[in-house]
Amino acid sequence: MESRHDSYNQHISAQYNAELEALKNHLLEMGGLVEQQLGDAIDALLRRDSGSAAPIIDKDAVINQMQVDIDEECSRILARRQPAASDLRLVLTIGKLTNDLERVGDEASKLARLAIDLSEDAASPSNLLEVRQLSTDVVDMLHASLNAFARLEVHQAVGVVIADRETDRDYGSGLRSLTALLMEHRDSIPTLLNEIWALRSLERVGDHAANIAEQVIYLVRGVDVRHLSRKELKQQHLDQP
Amino acid sequence: MSAELSLKPRHLLPAKANKRTGMNVSVDGLSLYYDRHTKALDDVSLRIKRQQVTAFIGPSGCGKSTLLRCFNRMNDQIEGCRIEGRIRMDKMDIYHPRVDVSLLRRRVGMVFQKPNPFPMSVYENVAYGLRIGGLRRRRELDEVVERSLRAAALWDEVKDRLNENALALSGGQQQRLVIARTIAVEPDVLLLDEPASSLDPISTLKIEELIYELKSRYTIIIVTHNMQQAARVSDMTAFMYQGRVIEFDTADRLFTNPKEKQTEDYITGRYG
């Protein structure tokens, strides 16, 4: 039975409704903060602005605490309510999503640190083109995956899973162009290496967004798609709205 | 069919025939009317496998206990009760006119919600059915009584109290004694109607553990109000509502991803 958008306020126990609703809201709050951190970090990186990068690193602790709190909430509901079916899938999914979101938070901190490094490095021969391109894609993916979770939209989640495979390819080609520049511009090695690290971080964000999307598919449909090929995904008609 | 039912008690048969694995039970188009207007079961069809635990869950009045009572023909005695459809255990049609109901009940044991030991000693409770079955020799009786009490995970607690009145046992012990009494006559199918609902949580867990231990030798069918219990003990679960089986699937699937909305609403505690 597919999870429905309104299904968390129909329990006989009003208290249980409130607990599940709060859990979902806390996860969305964490997602919102992580998105903001990522956006700010990318912004600082592209502007090579060390001033706006420092607060991002500090804020990571808030995300870590949110992970701990939400995980505790999940344990409490599992122990006290013994959720079943879509409720069980919601609690299990959120337990996993906090992990991915916390990792995206870590990547945002890493990007902020790279922004500080880059502000001190020589000018970039690439003009941060590869980082700029990949960052637009992964920010969209993270946003879409959280949207899919909030609205329980499977086809949007499938879109993110498929987009991640393209992101992996873009990461590969970005890496190749930066490696080529490394050989040409020996005086810019530290700058280019930092760009490669940034590219790697962004690629990891894409992976986490895809993990989130896969969990959303499990939450809504109860099927595990983590190890399916693109073709198999299409065969299951999961990409239809 | 009738040859199957005229078998002697198991313990009088050679050792090989004594190896129990239960019976497959199939229900086809079963409907039951308590009177002309009250349809308690509505076209129920199920395949229940041997060596598995099958649970029936559903709200009060959904027909789960009625269905359970069809397997040992306890509804037949109710005046005005009419049954359509068929129940087969392996190949025998248990509603065939030539079926001897008392022999059927020897093969289909039942345990009820409230422990109902006989007001006699622990030993005699278990030996009772064996004596009726014609077993007289003390040594054989001793052997079967011990084996049954061990199988019911009660032996260690009562081995020094065999001659005490069974009513002196705790509720949980009484229920396990009733199970020992039921399995002493070596049935093929065990029907459990809310077997733990009057017991404390520890006794409940002991009964559940016992169900798990017994399932390799019987076909076990359990009715329970306790959904977590059904999720813990059953291999297959049927959700019933208004006399119909709404969904019948593996417990794994039914409790994580049921197909029907009615099942989902019931097991998650939503408004139906």
UniProtKB/TrEMBL annotation, chain A:
Keywords: Cytoplasm, Phosphate transport, Transport. It holds the Pfam family PhoU. It is found in: Cytoplasm. The keyword Transport applies. One of its GO terms (biological process) is negative regulation of phosphate metabolic process. InterPro entries: PhoU, PhoU-like_sf, PhoU_dom. Its main location: cytoplasm. One of its GO terms (cellular component) is cytoplasm. Residues 27-114, 131-216 form the PhoU domain. Belongs to the PhoU family. Homodimer. Plays a role in the regulation of phosphate uptake. This is Phosphate-specific transport system accessory protein PhoU. It comes from Parahalioglobus pacificus.
TrEMBL record, chain B:
PROSITE patterns: ABC_TRANSPORTER_1, ABC_TRANSPORTER_2. InterPro entries: AAA+_ATPase, ABC_transporter-like_ATP-bd, ABC_transporter-like_CS, P-loop_NTPase, PstB-like. SMART domains: AAA (SM00382). It is found in: Cell inner membrane. One of its GO terms (biological process) is phosphate ion transmembrane transport. SUPFAM superfamilies: P-loop containing nucleoside triphosphate hydrolases. Residues 25-267 form the ABC transporter domain. Keywords: ATP-binding, Cell inner membrane, Cell membrane, Membrane, Nucleotide-binding, Phosphate transport, Translocase, Transport. The keyword Glycoprotein does not apply. GO terms for molecular function: ATP binding; ATP hydrolysis activity; phosphate transmembrane transporter activity. The keyword Ribonucleoprotein does not apply. It holds the Pfam family ABC_tran. One of its GO terms (cellular component) is plasma membrane. It is a peripheral membrane protein. NCBIfam families: 3a0107s01c2. Part of the ABC transporter complex PstSACB involved in phosphate import. Responsible for energy coupling to the transport system. This is Phosphate import ATP-binding protein PstB. It comes from Parahalioglobus pacificus. The lineage of its organism: Bacteria, Pseudomonadati, Pseudomonadota, Gammaproteobacteria, Cellvibrionales. The gene is pstB.
